[in-house]
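Researcher: Can you fold this with zinc ion in place?
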Amino acid sequence: MNFSQVIEYCPRCGSDSFPEKAPHFFLCEDCDFHFHINCTPGVVGIVADNAGGVLLIRRGKDPGKGKFSVPGGFVDSNETIEAALARELREEVNLEMVAAEYLSSYPNPYLYRGVVFPVVDLIFVCEVRTLETLSASDEVESFEFVDPAEIDLNEIAFPSIRHGLERYIQKRVSILTRQKEQ
Ligand SMILES: [Zn+2]
């Protein structure tokens, strides 16, 4: 279900003359209220161990319950992207982020309770202080480090995470190839 099927009335005056004039833009023909369904930023953190394995978590709740993902979540209002990334790593897997390098972004239409929310995920490669603190929160069923060459992308919960892992693997392969040539 998308927003034009959910939103029928103007949230300011209650008028039913509230058409979706452009995708995700509603305009009240009675009180001129402009209502935009903005794209929400999400953050995604790829963390690797010393052997090069990527931290995958099995999701403990929907959407994507039981499938693999990597730590991440939504950016709160008045929060920076970096702070959101550090917060999600702390909340989901109890890791302290010390540095992050931007990798890529990808749309992630997010189906929640029957409605698709527009989200764009910002994907980072993260460095953490130590992996010794690693532990799963309630949102996380389990976690494991998987060699990038052995990640089954069909088992990854979201297209944005699949895209991020693909980019990460490509980048890693090109770094390894360069090192071999030197
Ligand atoms: Zn109105």
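Model: Folded with zinc ion in place. The pocket of zinc ion is lined by residues 10, 12-13, 15, 28, 30-31, 33 (CB under 6 Å).
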